[in-house]
Amino acid sequence: MSRQTSRRRLLALLPAGVLAGCAAPLLGPPPPRVRIVDLRPVDATMFEQRWEALLWVEEQAGTGLQVDAMTATIELNGREFGSGRSNRPFLLPARGEQEVVVPLRGSGLGLVDQLATIGRRGELKWRVEGVFLSAGRHIPYRDEGTVFSLRDTLRDSLLPF
């Protein structure tokens, strides 16, 4: 086989190998789902707010997960509300769930800004993202949803059925 033929075969296999390598993480087990249950104020100053975020974590892969630590960044209506890290280890059983408290820090003006945004938009959308740290691995997650939509509430209340 000539050197040129070997090079062509290698180049022909390269895209398949690259695609397989890129797709491998996408085909792995799904990360745990995370939902915001509550945001509890702890302390506030003009420049900083401290909160406790109560998060509901659901294991979806069916394998269970020993979590050493967890980070979280919460956005409300597209703006960062706060971020933090929980260093309390917990076991997430296979297909099980766990409530986790994550201390957050955010801007003191963040709450005022969020209330104004909710008033203008008539809805409260949330996003939470971060990383589970487990046995030296970093498992990223990202979930989002809508707490309420004033438009949907009014539309539903005005319908006769």
Total count of helical runs of at least 4 residues? 3
> What's the mean pLDDT score?
80
Low-pLDDT stretches: 16-25
How is the biggest beta sheet arranged? 7 strands, antiparallel
Helix/strand-derived class?
alpha+beta
The count of β-strands is: 9
Q: Can you write the helix and strand succession as a string?
A: HEEEEEEEHEEH
Strand line-up of the largest beta sheet: 1-2-7-5-4-8-9
Radius of gyration (Å): 22 Å
What fraction of residues sit in β-strands? over 45%
Note the overall shape: globular
Distance between the termini: 76 Å
Helical residues, percent: 25-40%
Describe the protein.
This protein is of the alpha+beta class and 161 residues long. Helices cover 29% and strands 50% of the residues. The protein has helices spanning 3-27, 110-121, 150-158; strands at 33-44, 48-58, 65-67, 69-76, 79-86, 90-92, 97-107, 123-134, 137-149. The strands form two sheets. The chain has a seven-stranded antiparallel sheet. A two-stranded antiparallel ribbon has the order 3-6. Strand 1 (33-44) and strand 2 (48-58) form a beta hairpin. The longest helix has 25 residues, at 3-27. The protein starts with a helix and ends with a helix. The model is unreliable at 16-25 (pLDDT under 50).
